[in-house]
Amino acid sequence: MTAAPVRPAARGRAPRRPPLADADESVRMSAVDPVQVSLVIPAYNEALRLRGTLDAVEAWARERSSAVEVVVVDDGSDDATADLADAWAEGARARGRVRPVVLREPHRGKGSAVARGVLRAQGAVRVFMDADLAVPMACVEQIVDEISRGIDVAIGSRELPRSRRQDEAWIRHVMGRVFNWVVSRTAVDGFRDTQCGLKAFASDAAEDIFSRVALYPANGRVVRGSRVTAFDVEVLAIARRRSWQTSEIPVEWRHVPLSKVRPLADSFSMVRDVLRVRWNLSTGIYD
Ligand SMILES: Nc1nc2c(ncn2[C@@H]2O[C@H](COP(=O)(O)OP(=O)(O)OP(=O)(O)O)[C@@H](O)[C@H]2O)c(=O)[nH]1
Ligand SMILES: [Mg+2]
Fold first, then answer.
1. Which distant-in-sequence residues (6+ apart) come within 8 Å of 268 by Cβ?
2. For residues 110 and 77, is the Cβ–Cβ distance under 8 A?
3. pTM to 2 decimals?
4. For atom 13 of ligand 1, which residue has the closest CA?
5. Alpha helix stretches (DSSP H) within the chain
6. Tell me: the pLDDT tens digits for 113-167?
């Protein structure tokens, strides 16, 4: 038996967060504005996909009056991803619509890059999203609103009745469904889609959860090749174990070419990750 979930620091329900301010084109960020929303984008060999995403993010931020921080986490890309991110950051700083941060890390894979970015971020709402913009900014807006309404952890889902999926190979969908079944039977139940690359956290939940990850921590070991992994499963298992309030929201998702996923090889290592999460839950290391 594992210990009953205990809400962190006995804080009770998280206080309702004030809604973020309305759009106001005239507002420019100053260096001292408190960051409201942090968007963390893990990026590995994304020279072809990243710039369009950063431009879309900046355009989205321009429509908001609240301060938006964009944290790009490159972990040793072989291509020009980091330089491209730096060049964008320089321009973005001058334009003053977002606060750009580019982290250059040793290559530890997506899970570690996300943990590093989320823990480094300063926003009251911390989102991580994929560099391929598989989910449009309108869904990012919705997931931010969910946290602003007082939810601690909101996750994008491609499996709810109002979700939309475009251009996905049927075999990937079937594999995803089998994986979700395995996850629900072994590590964390009650989520229809643990693997969507869009998730958002209130800052206190983010710090509590990401400081506890054990599989792919921010300072984990260096790896070879692209590593998408099942780090999301651990994040959600910790959120549950720590009694953070979670919600799943429908997203519009489209398959974007140049995926880093190797469906067969990654499936094996992802199931291994899930079993490790199960073991960690039973030993109480997340309590
Ligand atoms: N920093 C870092 N990011 C990674 C790594 N591997 C993947 N990513 C990022 O993770 C995000 C998702 O990668 P994708 O290749 O789109 O994989 P996916 O969305 O899980 O799978 P698809 O459904 O095939 O698109 C992208 O932003 C990648 O750059 C890695 O090793 N390090
Ligand atoms: Mg993708």
1. none
2. no
3. 0.90
4. 260
5. 50-62, 81-95, 110-120, 137-148, 170-186, 203-210, 231-241, 263-283
6. 999 999 999 999 999 999 999 999 999 999 999 999 999 999 999 999 999 999 9
| DSSP-based three-state secondary structure for 128 | strand
CATH classification code of 32-283: 3.90.550.10
Would you say the CB of residue 179 lies under 6 angstroms from ligand 1? no
44 lines ligand 1 (CB under 6 A): yes
Span from the CA of 261 to the centroid of ligand 2 (angstroms):
8
**Residue 205 CA to ligand 1 centre (angstroms):** 23
Q: Structural domain boundaries of the chain?
A: 32-283
- For residue 253, the cross-strand partners are 165
Is the CB of 261 within 6 Å of ligand 1? yes
- The CA 196 to ligand 2 mean position distance, Å, reads 9
Q: Strand 125-128 and strand 153-157: pairing?
A: unpaired
What are the CA-CA distances from residue 283 to residues 261, 271, 277 (Å)?
A: 30, 19, 10
Mutate to test the pocket of ligand 1, among 71, 130, 155, 258 (most ligand atoms within 8 A of CB): 130
Query: What does the pLDDT look like over 92-113, one tens digit per residue?
Result: 999 999 999 999 999 999 999 9
